[in-house]
Amino acid sequence: MISNAPYRRTEIFVALLWIVTAVGAIGGAILINPIINAPDYLTVVFPKSATITSGMLGWMINDIGIVFIGLLMYPILKKHSESMALGYLSMRMFESLLMIVGVFFAMLLIPLSREFIKAGAADTASFQVIGSVLKQAENWFLNLLQLIFLGLGGIILTSMLYQTKLVPRSISVFGFIGYALLLPAAIIGLFGILDPTPGGPGSILAVPVAIWEIIIMPIWLFAKGFNSAAISTQ
């Protein structure tokens, strides 16, 4: 299998973006989650606002990068089905939008923490209520709701990869299974039954997708690229 030369740059960019977006999301979560999930988060968020802002920038890299993955894949996928290619791009855009909203809610904790520190012991309960609402909204948008669109978009992508044989079908099947697991994981998380967010007991359900996006697909695209025969016959 030799890559189709006109698409070689696209293959490299998509592989790099999968890695870069993963690093951005993982780095963002590592920087932010320990602070906003701390028992005394209202007193530590503002003093550590630089760390939180750095984490948010990591998330923004992820949020922008996933849209570019959809844009770069669109010309290739539309050769098979323009509607499905547009569906994949749309899912990536919705996913990005939800995470940007989640980032916004997390950033609002910084001024809340500042005002909490200024207020001292006065009206602690109201600050805790507002903080709890912001944290819940951040979790819904940044972690749970976006999983639905990530799963749907991934199912569309891997279905098309399977049908077109752009990559070996074993790779497509592995990815399809991984993305399919994200949908029930997100629903379970919304009902509070099992936490699929990073560090939660249900996060194991996201491991197959992580392996597929960070390891399997980038390595294959770097080494082999898409099946040129499959592209030319579409």
Q: What are its keywords?
A:
single chain, 234 residues, mainly alpha, 9 helices, elongated
Query: How far apart are the first and last residues' alpha carbons, in Å?
Result: 16 Å
Please state the average pLDDT score.
Answer: 90
Order of helices and strands: HHHHHHHHH
By DSSP, the count of extended strands is 0
Summarize the main sheet: none
Structural class: mainly alpha
Overall shape: elongated
Low-confidence stretches: none
Fraction of residues in helix: over 70%
Count of helical stretches: 9
Rg of Cα set: 20 Å
Taken as a percent bin, the fraction of beta residues is under 5%
Question: Could you explain the architecture of this structure?
Answer:
The protein has nine helices and no strands. The protein has helices spanning 8-36, 41-44, 49-77, 82-107, 109-119, 124-164, 169-190, 207-223, 228-232. Helix 3 packs antiparallel against helix 4 and helix 5 (109-119) runs antiparallel to helix 6 (124-164).
